[in-house]
Amino acid sequence: MGWVPWWSESRSSGGVFGFTSYATAEEVTHGIDASHLTAIITGATSGIGFESARVLAKRGTRVVMAVRNVGSGSKAKELILEETPTAQVLVLELNLSSLQSVHEFYKSFTALNLPLNILINNAGILGGPFKLSSDGLELQFATNYLGHFLLTKLLLEVMVGTVKDMGVEGRIINVASDAHRFGFAGGFQLEKLDDEKSYHAYLTYAKTKLANILHANELSRRLKLEGANVTVNSANPGIVVTRIIRNYRFLEIVAPFIESLLARLMLKTIPQGAATQCFLALHPCVNGVSGKYFGNCSYSKRTRSASDPKLAQQLWEFSEFMLSLKSF
Ligand SMILES: NC(=O)c1ccc[n+]([C@@H]2O[C@H](COP(=O)([O-])OP(=O)(O)OC[C@H]3O[C@@H](n4cnc5c(N)ncnc54)[C@H](OP(=O)(O)O)[C@@H]3O)[C@@H](O)[C@H]2O)c1
Predict the structure, then answer these.
(1) pLDDT tens, 80-99?
(2) Candidates 10, 103, 243, 296: which one to mutate for ligand 1, based on the most atoms within 8 Å of Cβ?
(3) Is 194 exposed, middle or buried (0-12, 13-18, 19+ CB in 10 A)?
(4) What is the CA radius of gyration of the chain?
(5) Nearest residue CA, atom 17 of ligand 1?
(6) How close is the Cα of 227 to the center of ligand 1, in Å?
(7) Does residue 123's CB lie within 6 angstroms of at least one atom of ligand 1?
(8) Widest CA span of the chain, in angstroms?
(9) pLDDT, tens digit, for every residue of 242-297?
(10) What ligand 1 atom has the least distance to the C-alpha of 176?
């Protein structure tokens, strides 16, 4: 496993489920037969989303790749089929920054009449200049959080129906980040989200990642009350060099050097970065576990605001209000 530096949040020597931060998505799902399951993975064209699609498909899961660019999605599907010719992979268009597109994805998915056991809310963007989505919402918040909030809300009925038909637990995984630690800097201030003057590229990203965790917490609480056999957890992939740094030209240039120097100290490889979400999607040892924050395939510490039930409820109500402003 190697030496674990004290400053590295990305690295740990092993958690309660027996995996270390060096474990890959393939390793943590080794030997699991998931051929009876269907999963939707958002942002499955690259990075840890693609790796999750590849590994889940390898374990037999029928994977619906929910992608913004169908051309890239088809190429990603081909790569998966090259490795696993028997893989069941579908590509459906989904632009999370457009509420209309989320509704259209839902219609296309339900038209296929498929079951749904696993939803991995993985897609995300980081930074960039202030920009509004087609719905007039700040782009990172719209993509990373609100699009996923709506997607999950729409798909829940299908998942609950599948749980009843198959008797298998449904699982929702929100891909968050330890960046959530900075998400409450200066308060949540949801009302200022669309205000360019209050925009800070990284702090806004952090806010969206905090929102991903709060969403998982609140949804988990509601589903427990309803007695639904669906778990909801959030996952921190660790620090992984992926295309997510595309808005930071400097980082893109230095990334190969950083990778080679720091790889074993702080950074994870993409297969390692995808491990926690694949573990949460397939592993039997997390049966019934819900409302938790995971990193390195184990329970992880979140900030006080990320476990605040009032804040989670406030965000939920705000999200419902934002959705109510649009009619479809
Ligand atoms: N990398 C890290 O160090 C790190 C750390 C903590 C958390 N995370 C989280 O991990 C998740 C995956 O990130 P990654 O590092 O794998 O980044 P990535 O390689 O850039 O992948 C992001 C994926 O999201 C998709 N996407 C972006 N905007 C979208 C939209 N509007 N609608 C639908 N899909 C969209 C991208 O599609 P296109 O191909 O069309 O752009 C791509 O498939 C994100 O939620 C991120 O916040 C990453």
Answers:
(1) 999 999 999 999 999 999 99
(2) 243
(3) middle
(4) 18
(5) 244
(6) 32
(7) yes
(8) 54
(9) 887 766 666 666 667 666 666 666 789 999 999 999 999 999 999 999 999 999 99
(10) 7
For the chain, what is the mean pLDDT? Answer: 92
Cα 17 to averaged position of ligand 1 atoms, centre (Å): 27
Domain residue limits, the chain: 25-324
Pocket test for ligand 1, best of 95, 139, 242 (most atoms within 8 A of CB): 242
Counting every residue written for the chain, the total comes to 328
CA of 236 to the centre of ligand 1 (A): 13
**68 Cα nearest atom in ligand 1:** 33
Cα 165 to middle of ligand 1, angstroms: 32
Residues serving a catalytic function are: 199
For the stretch 119-149, pLDDT in tens is: 999 999 999 999 999 999 999 999 999 999 9
Residue with tokens 């074993």: 264
Cα atoms in the 13 Å half-sphere on the side-chain side of 263: 10
Domain 25-324: assigned CATH number: 3.40.50.720
